[in-house]
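Protocol step 4 of 5: obtain the predicted structure for the target chain.
Materials: sequence only (see below). No template structures provided, no constraints applied. The aim of this step is simply to have a reference model before the mutagenesis design in step 5. Sequence pasted as it appears in the construct record:
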Amino acid sequence: MTEPRAPGAVVVSGVGLALPGADTPDALLRGARAPGHAPEPFDTGARIGRRGHRYKDRATQLALCAALDALRDAALVPADDAHGGTLTVPGDTVGVVASSNLGNLDTACLTAAAIAEGSARSLSPMSLPNASSNVIASWVAIRHGLRGPNLMLCNGPTSGLDAVHWAATLVAAGRVRRALVVGVETHNAVVADLLARPADDLLDGAVALVVEGARWAEERGARALAVLGPYERRAGLAGCVRALLPEGGDGPGVWFTPERYQEPTADAPVPPAVPRHDVTTTVGRASGALGVLQCAAAVGWLGTAGAEAGAGQALITSGDDTADAVAGLLLRGPGERRAPEVSAMSEISALECT
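Step 4 output (structure tokens):
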């Protein structure tokens, strides 16, 4: 479906968290947690009820919790709707883009092991769908009746920011008026063994954003928490930052660095005076959820004294100079709304969608 009118800027109109020890976006700005002092795991049953757990793996449960929180925050679900089954907008105007690199890895590995030891007949037909790579995005859409495009990204360390970008592209192209972006990872024995990391150094949680055309948000009286600026994907961190922050332009008020970023001794890509934040020191290494977590933390920063009067801009980067690509995004305060900035990739996508 192509909307008859342009959406204007693309804004963040809702944030949802299902994280241990962090209830609000600004809580992600806290410093590193002490080693060996991880908070209690997030209680998914307290938010979605025990019936919401049936036949779903831990990653899907966490994603459902963050999704419900974000939909409520964006006023797309009434506050008194305990399960999020009643949307305030038509379901076909809402899409879903989820990001997780390791979310159902345990299910896939255990399923393969069961088949190897016996046969497919030993598998439960109720748990087998959890081995599908798109199970997280699918269950979020099914639970809330979101009938727009449904995407699942498993794209390495840039996956979370890529998910935010493609959700914004869907909105800018007129495929949907708004999209729910979910980033989720969980730790278990399979994940800890694969990454060779202790469980308390890995994320067990989810975060969600609602990205929406500013026109549609204004029409339904929703507030904008932030405005999405340009997105870039480059071979290295320095090139990505240069593309986002050309010389002579406004510098960022804060930089959300890649996971466990090691500052170089010289030629830092961002001026040393700009504050740095690594959200993974607060909640654990986040893999495919990182970019969505960073955006939520940037919303928290834009709502605090770190940004004046709803203005300012946060620089967000995910990836590694040793990898094939680094993704970057500028997130601006609602007071910094500008004309939509669409990358060449987004323009191509818009043509394909229309």
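Step 4 remarks: The CA atoms of residues 242 and 269 lie 8 Å apart. The chain has eleven helices and ten strands.
Proceed to step 5.
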